[in-house]
Amino acid sequence: xxxxxxxxxxxxxxxxxxxxxxxxxxxxxxxxxxxxxxxxxxxxxxxxxxxxxxxxxxxxxxxxxxxxxxxxxxxxxxxxxxxxxxxxxxxxxxxxxxxxxxxxxxxxxxxxxxxxxxxxxxxxxxxxxxxxxxxxxxxxxxxxxxxxxxxxxxxxxxxxxxxxxxxxxxxxxxxxxxxxxxxxxxxxxxxxxxxxxxxxxxxxxxxxxx
Length: 210
Description:
Elements: H1 26-31, H2 35-44, H3 78-132, E1 145-146, E2 151-152, H4 156-183
Antiparallel strand pairs: 1-2
């Protein structure tokens, strides 16, 4: 290494004003590690023609109407809080019982109103039956036939019923006689040899009015 002559050495600079840099706090050093905190710190350090950044702007000022101390944010009277909770539970249960009573009372009112309406309709029906003499109609038979003396009623209805019954017996006798003739054509029983008693076919009934 060669030595530099004194004539060629640069002169020492003049001493100017000393700029002291404040050391960073632990919070500032930790904030530099996270992007959000770093941006907040840089916004707070801006001094140009920007909006002034205030830390914790969401918290109301002490002289504002919406300000409340942290100690007042918590409920300090635990007994009153428990009483309020018990009262709320009791009121809820009482309201539930009241609603049930109202529903049952309304259902009972509807039931009795229905019973009263049915009773009035029944009374009105009985009065109409008394006025129209409808009670005697219940003893009238559904067919023009007397089940006591086993005789048809007089009149056109009785004659029609007689013709219907005789036609039924006549068709039954015709069918029985036809089947008997189909079973044997000789007129004798093939097992015993005895003559078979023929089915009696009555005369064809006449229509009423003929």
